[in-house]
Amino acid sequence: MGSCFARPRTGIVSLRLEDRDEWEEFQRLLKEDLNDPAAGWKIKKDWAANYKNDYKIRISLKPDTTTGNPNYILRADVKFRGVTAQAHLDCLVTPDNLPGLQELETVETLPDGYIKYCRVKAPCLAARDHCWKYTIDHREDGSIFCCLRTATHPKCPLKAGVIRAY
User: Entry's InterPro entries (predicted)?
Assistant: First the structure.
């Protein structure tokens, strides 16, 4: 299962990809060598030596130079044992056990995914909320592609006392 996320440095929402779809952009980014300085990736958390709870992850960041937005692209390469792609997707789409979850709402169902609103609150911090567009593609080989991008939606206005996390 592939996942890509956009994490901005500023409050600007990512612009649409004009000349390719999310899958094509994901494939282009996946081909980039994380260890090639010219590609611009910085590995923030490398693979653990061993699986922890049948799971391990590598996190990398790079400036988003494709949409004209000064955001970072977050690349999460994940390895699971004993988890199906559908079970992982279900967790992404409905993270009921997300620590600090206060609100989760499907704002709009799209032909290829959803717009979701999520508000979380960590101890000693102000609440944060998100408006995300989920693009989901069930591939012919049985794999599932899911891309989350920061979005705006009329049903997801800014709320007093809540920080909009991008």
Answer: START-like_dom_sf
